Every structure is written in C-alpha cells, then in structure tokens.
Amino acid sequence: MAELTLGKALGAGLRRAMLDDDKVVLLGEDIGKLGGVFRITDGLLDEFGAARVIDTPLAESGIVGAAVGLAFRGYRPVVEIQFDGFVYPAFDQIVSQVAKLHYRTQGRVKMPITIRIPWAGGIGAAEHHSESPEAYFVHTAGLRVIAVSNPEDAYRSLRQAIASDDPVIFFEPKRLYHHKGEVDLEAPLADAAPMGLARVVRAGSDATLIAYGAMVSTALQAAEAAEDDGISLEVIDLRSLSPVDYDSVAASVRKTGRVVVAHEASREAGVAAEVIASITERCFEYLESAPLRVTGHDVPYPPAKLEKFHLPDLDRLLDAVDRVLDRPNSLTGADA
C-alpha cells in the first residue's frame, strides 16, 4: 500500500496504463512540460516522450477531434480538459462523434477514448472553473460517465476507463486532489470492483444518503454527525453515473425506506432527479417518505466568496435527513 493524494493516484494510474499499453497516448493543454495545471501528468513527458504526451493548442474541439482520429487508428487516447467549464467547445465532438461512432458503424469502429475533466467547486474559483456538467453527458447515449471520490478509486477506475473499449467521461473532483488515502499499486486490475458498481461506504439502517465525487466526503460527515443523535445513515458512493448501479441503490433503499440524494450540480434535471425517479419506480412500496434532493442552486456558479452558500453542506444534508425521518426541521424550526 502507498499513501497518495488523489492527484498523485491519478498520475500513477496514467503512468501504469501507459506502461501496460503503448497505444495509450495523452493529449491536453499544458500537460507536457508543465505537467498539467493541477500537475496530474507531471513527469510523464520525460518518461514517455512528446509522441505520447502531447501538448495541444488551446482548442478543445480540436483536442477531442484528434482523439477521434487516433481511436480510428487503434490508439487509446486520454484527453485532459483543463477545467470543467472548458469542455463546452468540444461538446459537439463528444455527443456527435465520440458517443455515436460505435453505434453508427454497427460495432466496426470502437472509440476507446477517456476524457478526464477536473470538475466541480470548492477551490475558490468562479464560473468555467467550478462547474458540474455531468447531466449533459449522462443524458447522452453511448458514453460511460464516472465520478471518483477517493485515491484508490481514482487509480483503479482510471486504469479501467483507459482499458475499456467504451468512451468514458471521467470526472475528477478537483477540491479533493490533495486528499490522501491508501492505494494498492500492485493489485491486479482484474481484482478491482467493476467501474460501473456503486459502493456502500458506510452501512446504516434509518435512511440512505446517495452521493458521488466530493459530496461523498460531505455525506460521510453527515452520517457521523447524525450518529450523535442516534440516527444510522447508510452512505452510497454511486461511482458510475452512467450506467447507474440501481441494484445496489435499490437494495439499500428497500432496507432503510428513506433516501436523500446529494450533488453539487444544479437541481433542475440533475442526476439526483433521475436517481429519485428510478428509485420510485423500483422501490415505491418500500418508501416511508418522499425522497429528497440536496443540490446546488439553479444559478450560474457564484463568485468565490459566495460558493459556500451554493455548495451542499453538512447542515443542508442533515436538514434533508430530518425531513425524510419526519423529525423537527433543524433549519426552519418547524415540523417537516
């Protein structure tokens, strides 16, 4: 076991993938000499050379377009989008080509492209640098969408994404880049949990709290705080946003009968809405109360001094838990 930050775990995952397969190439803005704006690719240019670690022009549509061409020629390109809000110029390439070429060619062409996106808020940056665009890609058939929450998962899931013949949108919570955890660098990839499976990160019996990315840490904090009041919360890390492991989700909800779903993205048409709709379809007879969402607000991402009011926090999660448990409402002082 090695203790690594999430950022270092991602770098280790990229390095291992490049050692395992010489068809893995990296593309992105400033990923070579600089090592990436978050230093995820630091040292890889020196080790693998400029033919495999490619500093690109500042043109996201061109970067993803080049990756499509490389995939046609049998390579496994890994694209870094420098910030979440910079992905939009490449949106047409992703939804019109990357997501559809396998289907359009009746399986003759594969698109083993991994698109890494440093993602979401909590670093004191404004719009275009703190956004949560996952719902756009979850809605797009033909893409896998992964959101990691810890160093071990980052290392394993990134290697799995690169080895997959499916195109993968790989979201990395940038505010967790410096968070440390144990990573097994030697365990065979075949022994890792499939990247499409959700994970129960804390067992509980009174309500299910579902999150992904950096919100998993907040959900675990909420579960610890709730325990002081005698409330047992089960916390699920979705890990995969498309497809969603609804078998694991439904098993938890059938046990607890109550559910809260949390994410940083805006509320309207977000991932939480789809998860709750699917839970209701699968588990309606088990639900003891209406499922609730705790999300970012339906506004453009606010300035740094206001982001603490935008991001779901411990109090907002515990308030939702009180409401699904029909306890006195901690934020309003009234019964739910």
Low-confidence stretches: 332-336
Q: Helix segment count? A: 12
Beta-strand residue fraction = 15-25%
Dominant shape: globular
Compute the CA-based radius of gyration.
20 Å
Structural class: alpha/beta
Number of strands: 14
Q: Roughly what is the average pLDDT, rounded to an integer?
A: 95
Helix/strand order = EHEHEHEHHEHEHEEEEHEEHEHEHH
For the report, how would you describe the main beta sheet?
Answer: 7 strands, mixed
Major beta sheet, strand line-up:
3-2-4-5-7-6-12
Percent in helix: 25-40%
Rounded to the nearest angstrom, the distance between the terminal CA atoms is 46 Å
Description:
The protein is an alpha/beta fold and 336 residues long. The protein has 12 helices and 14 strands. The strands form 3 sheets. The protein has a 7-stranded mixed β-sheet with strand order 3-2-4-5-7-6-12, with helices on both faces. Strands 9-11-10-13-14 form a 5-stranded mixed β-sheet, with helices on both faces. α7 links the parallel β6 (144-147) and β7. α1 runs parallel beside α7 and α9 (246-256) packs across α10. The chain starts with a strand and ends in a 12-residue tail after the last helix. Residues 332-336 have low confidence and may be disordered.
Quick overview of this protein structure:
This protein is an alpha/beta fold. The protein contains twelve helices and 14 strands.
Note the main attributes of this structure.
336 residues; alpha/beta; seven-stranded mixed beta sheet; five-stranded mixed beta sheet; 12 helices; 14 strands; 20% strand
